[in-house]
């Protein structure tokens, strides 16, 4: 096994010496044809042997209280109903089976909480039965308003990624700025509850063979899901196999849903395979949300534009014992230089579904506030917002003093300004008008911490010269199958068609899984390391040092010999194993990906409607493994930014504690017509300190700052500042003059 | 979804005799059945009836079969030429896929998109008469500011019907007893009052077979829809406007509004404020005053009042060629 721990930079890997020329190329995703033709089988669509039964979750229409009983006789008597399960102590009652341990009791602690499952011969019959069950609840008044409960807020949980930081005195810095003729900003920005809104709902098929459970599902990180599922149903992890070949969007939500646990226990009880898909409204209320945030930002700058102080103080919400805290200030920690720095979080407990990770936890909502505040202070100083950012660019991590692994924020800003035509922007709002439309441009910085997680892979070079890449890593829809093949192809000198990649099966070596934008870096490194094993044996058989051997088009070349790889392999396949582990480089270097987001918008002077006209994202995220897939990741994130700026809002009814707009008809995300031409540029810097293949996380980076670029452009267009996100047309309208 | 009987009708007469809930495109009804907001015992499938033609009558008007898909109607040459307000309204609604499936008759009968109507855990007098109205005192961004009652503040979601109301459409029906009726669209919809569950003048088992449009009206036509995203969202407010100006004065005006009331809204006082006047912002403001005199917001939809005023004034400027 080729193992490497990132306590130091890797001295150099075979992939870097590769000459196959497949790495970085914008190849189509290998499973693309399956997906567009509808023949890729997602978890729910897996065809199992045996007589499948269908389940539908039973939920309680109350946010807080106690279940006092059920009327289920009518449901049980409906045609096609096999069972109505309400009393199994393993029924998961919180956001997910792995959430706070509320399973098996009668307490209701959030709206639409799962209390059971109906099993029937068809999906329709199961749904009818579930709806026919009357759940009796003794209701209590719940608390759903974050700021109304601020007096009872808690500090960050002990195991939270972010603890409170106070370096210097922000009040003194604000006073000093005033005294020296500088400027200050002290504003509160709010963001609402948001949901993942993946197209594919949480869905699982459970099959038992004796005491062995196989779950076909849609899960991001199998190494997390497997023990969690085993624990939830009361068996040992070695009795569980999970397959998750395709994921129709996850964004942090698909760790393990209640439907997986219920499918397993229902299948166990009735002795047949059971499949359950969650309904959209059930996802809104039973899969964790992104918390609402209340963010106070204070900035103090001297008259020359140097930041003297930066404070980012946030209030978020969580359910009782929720654990996770949205790290709102994560992106603010090291983005700008300022001698005085303060970052705090307060967590308010509400009677709501758990708050958890949604794409780019922290930065996605934190940059909406920070990058608006930066725009505000630049304007107050009379400085261009790009110049202001460059002026406050830190040389080292301003909090820890650690050097940056790689950082190209200034290059991103400069290249973006050039490519976008930033020089044409008027610094004064409301100067450019076309008919009813006011036109403006905005900019924001993007930042996302870079993560590496332990990951293993196996690469087998077969006697026929084909390679097989295996890991329980998942492809969340971003192209993991393709990039892992590209890495192996470059390292082993094989064309893409000679490589098979198998993912998403817990019987395979444990990989990183998909989340936190760490998948490509972590799983990719493990595959590259596994290839080292194979290359070492090939070199030995070529009587050459690995660095003196060239692998290309399925042949090894060393000295004056060119040998087909299959001949070198012989009768028995060569198996390479790779493992990457996180190490001290994570502390030695301040690691993050950066970018610059540009937007041009039009705001209608009659209606306050905003139409984004074009956007450009310039990103530095280490090595780019596949130009096309990287671009797809980036534009996807930028579209999230449009949604966060203009529309995404899970509206809470404060009387009952439910999300009112709990479907995709009324929880608005951008439609195609909302998405203008999006351009993406990459500044490629191979980050040797981050991991052996020099890749940094990209997907979440591209959300970061995107929303603020849009709303800063709205300000530039019409003079209306976003402080209460999303900036819907009624809020714009309130700031527009009479027509 | 509750189990139901299904019958396919091969003639309008057979459809009304079959005694069940009619289904054509099903773009709204099936959603409502899945959520058990509607639980019909029997569906009568009318989608194969021979009612999918658009015909020009001798008087110059159009007779539109109730089963003409929204997409086809929007692309029909007679509609594009003579009734652009209708073509634009149709294309402002739903999505391409839904417009391909949705029928003209069904579009008139869409149920409200009120959040609380869709949530069977919530009180709703339209869904469960007598249970109350959760929207009052709740979140009501997309709900009504005109024509509401203490029992219901739902809006009618259609774009097409707003244009049809501006066009004085007539709804032609067949009743189970074989009688035919011609119902002016102005008499077709009901205010909620104390019976918000009764939305139209249709009797039990009565089938819409056609919609008649009068000959194309004189003047300029416009459909303007304001919504929370650029596509696939219901109107916060929409305006269907048909205005002619002769000798510097407004000779005729027909203005209907979506997103404001429980039905496609049309108020004679708005048109009275305009007809005979020289176009000007003062006249347009008077028309807006007339429209909004009784407007009442319920909190999260308060913004619709100033928004409607602005959109109406801007629409009238465009229709009359008057500048700000």
Automatic annotation (TrEMBL), chain A:
Superkingdom to which the source organism belongs: Bacteria
Coiled coil: none
InterPro entries, per the entry: Ald_Oxase/Xan_DH_a/b, Ald_Oxase/Xan_DH_a/b_sf, Ald_Oxase/xanthine_DH-like, AldOxase/xan_DH_MoCoBD1, AldOxase/xan_DH_MoCoBD2, AldOxase/xan_DH_Mopterin-bd_sf
Stretches assigned to the Aldehyde oxidase/xanthine dehydrogenase a/b hammerhead domain: 37-141
Pfam families hit by this protein: Ald_Xan_dh_C (PF01315), MoCoBD_1 (PF02738), MoCoBD_2 (PF20256)
The protein's name: Xanthine dehydrogenase
Organism, as annotated: Sphingomonas psychrolutea
From TrEMBL, chain B:
Domain of life: Bacteria
Pfam families recorded: CO_deh_flav_C (PF03450), FAD_binding_5 (PF00941)
Keyword Manganese: no
SUPFAM superfamilies: CO dehydrogenase flavoprotein C-terminal domain-like (SSF55447), FAD-binding/transporter-associated domain-like (SSF56176)
Species assigned in the record: Sphingomonas psychrolutea
Chain ranges of the FAD-binding PCMH-type domain: 1-218
Xref: InterPro entries: CO_DH_flav_C, CO_DH_flav_C_dom_sf, Diverse_Substr_Oxidored, FAD-bd_PCMH, FAD-bd_PCMH-like_sf, FAD-bd_PCMH_sub1, FAD-bd_PCMH_sub2, Mopterin_DH_FAD-bd
Protein name (Swiss-Prot/TrEMBL): Molybdopterin dehydrogenase
Keywords, comma-separated and alphabetical: FAD, Flavoprotein
